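Quick one, probably user error.
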């Protein structure tokens, strides 16, 4: 049997903008005082970390594990709201960082936030953009075009968002006019950065970026590879550094390094 529709409806009405959910825990539910406790699974919103949805294990489709519940909610909200990509929460990649972001590919607009607060009344759009670029660099979110790694390719706006009510968008104008985006603080709306990716957002109507999403290496690494290659020669892919080696970019040793949660093996790039 499918996940109950009422659970998807609750995810649709939640105001956090990415709609990203992740497995949180398993619980014991009292459904009927005359019956044994029932096992359940909880998925947590990765934006606010305080909103949770739960279902009985018996309500999960056959073959779905506890992690699949959060993934199913995320995919449902992503498709419903028209996002081509969405990510949320803390990411244990590179140095480890927070990033919540969505992308409207149809009009070249990102909404991004680089911290975990959903109640701040102000912030620095450039820092949110830096977090988005870090997401590209470390593979948290996919850049559809190499220029997406360049900060000068964006026009930034401080906005306030809530997806408790929302409307589909097809253009930059639709984003500004939508009920989910406001230009001034409002009750129930969280601050974020709207980043217009200019090659798409400023393109003539009907023209879209057709490059297939592919992982893009960092700007510094790409520039270094091009500089080292002979004229007219194709640049070889960067070699993966081994434990104990020193990174030629940041100069740090590749080793196990601590994160807020867990650890990673690498340098400080």
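Nope, works fine. Designed sequence:
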């Amino acid at each position: 049997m499918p996940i109950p529709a009422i659970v998807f409806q609750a995810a649709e009405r939640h105001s956090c903008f990415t709609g990203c959910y992740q497995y949180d825990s398993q619980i014991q539910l009292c459904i009927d005082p005359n019956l044994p406790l029932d096992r359940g699974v909880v998925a947590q919103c990765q934006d606010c970390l305080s909103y949770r949805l739960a279902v009985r294990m018996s309500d999960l489709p056959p073959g779905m594990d506890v992690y699949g519940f959060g993934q199913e909610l995320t995919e449902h909200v992503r498709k419903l709201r028209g996002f081509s990509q969405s990510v949320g929460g803390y990411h244990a990649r590179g140095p480890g960082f927070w990033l919540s972001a969505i992308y409207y590919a149809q009009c070249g607009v990102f909404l991004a936030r680089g911290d975990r607060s959903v109640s701040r009344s102000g912030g620095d759009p450039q820092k949110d953009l830096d977090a988005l670029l870090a997401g590209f660099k470390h593979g948290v979110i996919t850049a559809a075009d190499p220029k997406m790694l360049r900060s000068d390719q964006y026009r930034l706006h401080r906005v306030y968002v809530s997806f408790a009510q929302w409307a589909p968008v097809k253009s930059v104008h639709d984003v500004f006019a939508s009920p989910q985006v406001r230009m001034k603080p409002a009750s129930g709306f969280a601050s974020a950065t709207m980043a217009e990716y200019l090659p798409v957002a400023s393109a003539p109507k009907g023209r879209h970026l057709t490059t297939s999403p592919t992982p893009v290496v960092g700007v510094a690494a790409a520039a270094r590879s091009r500089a080292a290659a002979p004229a007219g020669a194709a640049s070889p892919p960067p070699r993966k550094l081994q434990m104990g080696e020193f990174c030629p970019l940041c100069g740090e040793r590749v080793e196990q390094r601590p994160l807020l949660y867990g650890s990673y093996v690498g340098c400080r790039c």
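The longest strand covers residues 21-29.
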